[in-house]
């Protein structure tokens, strides 16, 4: 397992905290721009538009927001941005249920 350096850990922690403090309604209302793979936070979390990890994608992550079936949806990890439902990042956690 690759160790996470302090800078990446702080980015992840801060982004997660910000994302989790925003309500789902606020995320849906504010998320308008599609997340670029070149975005600094996306790079830090190794976000890609198409998952290469079998069984893991944004669509089955606990941080995804919005209605199932949409190609681009809000994500608590990337406030104000839309992620591809087929995407993946290192903050991925399986959605309960």
UniProtKB/TrEMBL annotation:
<dbReference type="InterPro" id="IPR036369">
    <property type="entry name" value="HIPIP_sf"/>
</dbReference>
<protein>
    <submittedName>
        <fullName>High-potential iron sulfur protein 2</fullName>
    </submittedName>
</protein>
<comment type="function">
    <text>Specific class of high-redox-potential 4Fe-4S ferredoxins. Functions in anaerobic electron transport in most purple and in some other photosynthetic bacteria and in at least one genus (Paracoccus) of halophilic, denitrifying bacteria.</text>
</comment>
<keyword id="KW-0411">Iron-sulfur</keyword>
<keyword id="KW-0479">Metal-binding</keyword>
<dbReference type="InterPro" id="IPR000170">
    <property type="entry name" value="High_potential_FeS_prot"/>
</dbReference>
<dbReference type="InterPro" id="IPR006311">
    <property type="entry name" value="TAT_signal"/>
</dbReference>
<dbReference type="GO" id="GO:0019646">
    <property type="term" value="P:aerobic electron transport chain"/>
</dbReference>
<keyword id="KW-0732">Signal</keyword>
<dbReference type="GO" id="GO:0046872">
    <property type="term" value="F:metal ion binding"/>
</dbReference>
<keyword id="KW-0408">Iron</keyword>
<feature type="domain" description="High potential iron-sulfur proteins family profile">
    <location>
        <begin position="29"/>
        <end position="97"/>
    </location>
</feature>
<dbReference type="GO" id="GO:0009055">
    <property type="term" value="F:electron transfer activity"/>
</dbReference>
<keyword id="KW-0004">4Fe-4S</keyword>
<dbReference type="InterPro" id="IPR019546">
    <property type="entry name" value="TAT_signal_bac_arc"/>
</dbReference>
<dbReference type="Pfam" id="PF01355">
    <property type="entry name" value="HIPIP"/>
</dbReference>
<keyword id="KW-0249">Electron transport</keyword>
<dbReference type="GO" id="GO:0051539">
    <property type="term" value="F:4 iron, 4 sulfur cluster binding"/>
</dbReference>
<keyword id="KW-0813">Transport</keyword>
């Amino acid at each position: 397992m690759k160790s996470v350096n302090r800078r990446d850990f702080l980015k992840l922690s801060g982004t997660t905290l910000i994302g989790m403090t925003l309500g789902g309604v606020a995320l849906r209302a504010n998320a308008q721009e599609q997340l670029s793979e070149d975005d600094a936070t996306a790079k830090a979390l190794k976000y890609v538009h198409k998952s290469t990890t079998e069984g893991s994608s944004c669509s089955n992550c606990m941080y995804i927001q919005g209605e199932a079936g949409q190609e681009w949806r809000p994500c608590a990890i990337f406030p104000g941005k839309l992620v591809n439902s087929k995407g993946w990042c290192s903050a991925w956690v399986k959605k309960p249920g």
